[in-house]
Every structure is written in structure tokens, then in C-alpha cells.
């Protein structure tokens, strides 16, 4: 009778009549082996396609086709062990999202998000690799910005060294040394502030100082250092009696006479025959104007006509003609020349009397050439 037979689980059914999948004489219900799906069948007695000890029913089967993922061949684009068909696919094109283009790496495929694509090439603007010089998120080629040189770079992003809103490439600013930097924007010295670096300006004596910034006593545009030595030069040969003006005398006694006393004299009757004084020929005629310049030193009309040369031997004197002077002066010519007394003195001009004979007592180191001015209407 059944009640007299072994019944390991005391369920009233003899062990010999209970399921025993492995035929080891111990009913499955009384085996100590696992049962992962709790179906009453020991794991070792259930199908296990990959023989890993885990029944197929307890393995991953993402597509629920009854075959564990580990036991079927499938596409796995990202090699994560999960079939492509079981991975998220936002656009349902059969390609998992993880394997789709995602240029901004935000986890959403480009095909599944809304983005700006100004050139309609299917690539988001932020990922297109196109220049965006002003960093506003819109590629330069898609912006309607001024581009004066049509090089594809908006003007606002081009070099504009003088910040006037026009790119350097679209202005004729000059680049005298060809270094790619417009002249007005060079850090080089520009002594006359004309926008041209000094090293690109004419420099007749090659001393590094442009001619325009060198002393030019007679205002003829040629630096004094580059003109032939002439003891006395002037900036003009005429003066208008109507408008008046100044005649500038450039006195150059040379370095060796620096600090010496000079005296500028004049004549209204020409330079010949002149006269001799102190062993030198003075190229002026003795007349009332000569005596006036000798007696009335440093007075109108002859200013700074008497004094000391600077330590380079230079001085500047002026002849002043007032405006609206008498028309009777028209055609009149004045000549001026200067003498330098010896010995040189560095304690101020020598003391002169009022006569030429008194002046001659000192002797002369230099007698200059004469320069002329004519009075015109």
C-alpha cells in the first residue's frame, strides 16, 4: 500500500510515484537543488542552452522568443551584450539610440531632437564645425552680417586695429614696412603723429629721426643737418607791406663758436661795396639803417639780433614788418649779415658801444653772408 512506502515530503504520495527528473531515487520536491523559476522542477533538469547551470527560463530573453539572449545570434552594434532590437530606438529605424549620431553627446540621437541647422545639411549648427566668430551659436556663413572683403568672416570678427568699425583689410591705412600691421596701429614711435611710423619716414641723415621732426630753421622742408653749411639763411625773400609778417634769420656759427656773442646788422642800400672792419669785409653798406641796427640792438624791427649763440653755435633772429605798413616801402630791399666777436665768451654778450669803431676793437671770429628781403605790396 502507498501509505507503507517512503514519502519524503509526507504528501501522501510515495516517493516512487513522485517526479524524479534526474532518476536518482529522490523525488524532485525533496531534492536540495535550486529551482530558479519556482516551477517545481530542479534547475538541473530544465533546458540550459549555454550549459551555465542557469535554466533558459531564468536567462535574459529580451525579445521573449523563448531563446536566451546568450544562445542566439543577433546584431549588437555597441557590443553591450544586448540585442539591438531590445535597446531604445527613438526613431524606430532598427539602429539603437546608442549607435546613432549624437554630436552634442546629450544621449539623444540627432535624428530625434529638434535643432538649428541653418545650412540644412542635417548636422546641428552647434556640431557642424563651422566658424562662429562671435560665439552666438549661429555659423558665420548663415548670418547676414557685413563682410566687406567677402572672405566669409564677418567684419565684426576681423582685425580692426583702430576700432573704427571697418576691418583693416578694407581700409587703405598703409603698411610701410609690410609687416601686416597698419601704420596707424604700429607701436613704433611717430614723432609727428601723422600715422606713419618714424622708421618709414624720410631720414636724410639716417639718424633715426624723421626729417619732419628734425630742426629746420629756414622751414624749407630740409633738416638743417642735411643742408650745406651756410652761416646765415632765411625762410623768405619777400614781405608784404599790406599783411606784414616776420622774416626768420637762421644763424649758424658752427659748434666751435658755441657760446660766442653775435650781432645781426642791416643795410637798406645793398651789399656792395660794403666795408672792412676788424680785418674782415662786412657785406653791408654803411647807411642810416646800418647805424640803427648797431645802436638799437634787440629792438623792433630787428628782434634777438644781438646775443649769444647756443652751445651748438645756433641762434634765431626775426625782422618784424607791421601790417598795413606804408606803401612807399614797396620795392625797398633790406640786407642783413651778422658778425661773431672774438674771443668767445660764455658769460653773456660782449658790451658794445654805439659805433662801428668801438665794435671793431673786439675782432671777429666770423662774418656771415648777407641775405635779402624785398618789400612787396
What's the structural blueprint in terms of helices and strands?
Elements: E1 232-234, E2 238-240, E3 245-252, E4 261-267, E5 275-277, E6 280-282, H1 288-295, E7 302-303, E8 306-308, E9 314-321, E10 333-341, H2 356-360, E11 364-367, E12 371-376
Share of residues in strands: 15-25%
Overall SS class: mainly beta
Helix content: under 10%
Instruction: List the secondary-structure elements in sequence, H or E.
Output: EEEEEEHEEEEHEE
Described by the principal axes of the CA atoms, the overall outline is rod-shaped
Unreliable residue runs: 350-361
Q: How many strands appear in the DSSP assignment?
A: 12
Tell me the Rg in angstroms. Answer: 55 Å
SS element count, helices = 2
What's the overall average pLDDT, rounded? 82
| Main pleated-sheet profile | 6 strands, mixed
End-to-end gap: 163 Å
Describe the protein in words.
The chain is mainly β and 377 residues long. The protein has helices spanning 288-295, 356-360; strands spanning 232-234, 238-240, 245-252, 261-267, 275-277, 280-282, 302-303, 306-308, 314-321, 333-341, 364-367, 371-376. The strands form 3 sheets. Strands 2, 4, 8, 10, 11 and 12 form a 6-stranded mixed β-sheet that branches. Strands 1-3-9-7 form a 4-stranded antiparallel β-sheet, with no helix packed on it. It has a two-stranded antiparallel sheet with strand order 5-6. The model is unreliable at 350-361 (pLDDT under 50).
